[in-house]
Amino acid sequence: MAQTVCMPDLSDRPLACFREKVFKFNRSILYHAWTSGLDTWFAAKGSVLMNVEVNAPFFFETAFKPEGADKESRHPHYGRFLKLVENQLIELTWVTGAGGTEGAETVVRIEMHDVENEVLLRVTHAGFRDEKSKDIHQYAWGFVLDKLAEDLEKKYSKLN
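Structure (tokenized):
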């Protein structure tokens, strides 16, 4: 029996952003990084509560120390999985607070496409209420993809 998934209504929040990056790692490695490996490169250690299943809710925090700050700030992220196609697609809701999605349930779609001997990873983030929030995420997703590439490079260069 097919599981019913309640998709967020984004009709009154049409703003979206996207980022793409080409990776030399296969889709299986990238899929794993976004599902069971999130706390190795993105989420704060020990903060991930996640079952990788459609309709399953998740929680994690990111930690960031702005330049000149005395301590790092932690940012909670909540959501649920909408679609999972192993090694191809992850779609999930994404809710953060002030300075993030401002409490709006947005949708993040992570697609992986083979391009010659590499993988094009595209992140689309939709459902923003205003340009400011969209622009913050446009910038942040570039940083996140660069961080993922850096982490994978360190991890897999040790194996060679």
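The chain has one domain: 15-132+147-157. Residues 15-132+147-157 form a domain with the Alpha-D-Glucose-1,6-Bisphosphate; Chain A, domain 4 fold (CATH 3.30.530.20).
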